Amino acid sequence: MHLKTVDYKLTTDTPPAHYKFSYDQNLYHRIEYLECQSKLPGSTFWLCDHPSAQIHGVIHFHLEGSRAVSHAYAPFGSFDGKIIPNNMVENFISYITKTLIKHGLKQMQFNQPAPFYSAGSGWAQVLRSLGFSVRHSINHHVIVDKFPLRDKMHLMEKRKLTRCEEFCFKLQPLSFFSRIYQFIKACRQERNQSLSMSFESLEKVIRKLPANFLLCTASYGNTLAAAAIVIKVTSRCWYQFYPAHNNKFNRESPLVFLMSELYAHARKEGVEIIDLGTSEDQGLPNKGLLTFKKRIGGITTMKSSYFKTI
User: Fold this and answer.
1) Domain that holds residue 168
2) What are phi and psi of 205, to 5 degrees?
3) How far apart are CA 307 and CA 310, in angstroms?
């Protein structure tokens, strides 16, 4: 549904508690998530329809010195809400810009979602037309449909899947978070990689929003071979976060098995997209990770960040 101009009012005032969201709000824009990640001061802009007591959209900025970033503690930020006409997007950006300038901000950054999070498509077009600079990152996702993931895999990954016939996939209770986080951290350290979120920070979010997280494991006997934290960003899109496997099982590649089983579970839950995230190492493309995601059925898209001095 597209909104007409008469349906909205832009405001920085937090809507009354009885206002309802008119769309499937994504996790990263929920107040509970932002409260868990509030290391920096912030500014939130709302798109409201006061007569019907509805919220049609929201955008949050973290304020870093003279820079406003939407936002700093999630894979993406920018606008979350119903699809709105480009002239409304331009009005919204103008309102945001004037408000931020009044508060002494000098730079703006919009971290756009990948295109399959549909509300942001018009924003990208308008941001370009307003002279924002852009930086692109390669992102992959898997479309969840009636076909098993195996049918979408490269022949090499199908062979790896066959090697994992004796492995066991399990959705673990959230009480296993500490063990799984430490396993993932150790696997990353073996590859000289680090985690972007501390144990305490991620645990805080999981405790606050437990319904939005899944813990997945693949085991061989009593040995943990692979694990991933899955974030339910929306009802239709899940994000596979921090996948990792034990080097002992490099030949079997248990992450292929874990992803196949997660896909099957997501299909039962009516999920449409599994977001595999970006594939970069210190800002540069990670060719090995790019190849892996493509071979397990990942579709390539671009995720973009827009910058401007105001």
Assistant:
1) 140-303
2) -70, -45
3) 10
Beta strands in the chain, from DSSP E residues, in sequence order: 9-11, 20-21, 42-49, 54-64, 67-70, 80-81, 107-111, 133-143, 168-172, 213-220, 223-232, 237-245, 273-278, 280-281, 284-285, 299-309
- Ordered DSSP codes for 161-217: HHHTTT-EEEEE-GGGHHHHHHHHHHHHHHTT---SS-HHHHHHHHHH-GGGEEEEE
**Helix residue ranges, H only, 61-120:** 86-102
**Residue 1, pLDDT score:** 43
Contacts of 169 (CB under 8 A, 6+ apart): 216, 217, 218, 257, 258, 261, 262
Give the separation between CA 276 and CA 169, rounded to whole angstroms: 19
pTM score above 0.90: yes
Of 87, 103, 131, the one marking the end of a domain is 131
Per the prediction, the chain carries an average pLDDT of 91
In a domain, 309, yes or no: no
Report the alpha-carbon distance of residue 144 to residue 264 in Å, rounded. 8
Radius of gyration of the chain (CA): 20
* Helix (H), strand (E) at residue 38: none
Q: What is the pLDDT of residues 47-97, one digit of tens each?
A: 999 889 999 999 999 998 999 999 888 999 999 998 888 998 999 999 999
Structure tokens belonging to residue 18: 């009885």
Strand partners, 281: 284
Structural domains counted in the chain: 2
At position 197, the amino acid (one-letter code) is M
Query: Pick from 11, 87, 1: which is nearest to 43 by CA?
Result: 11
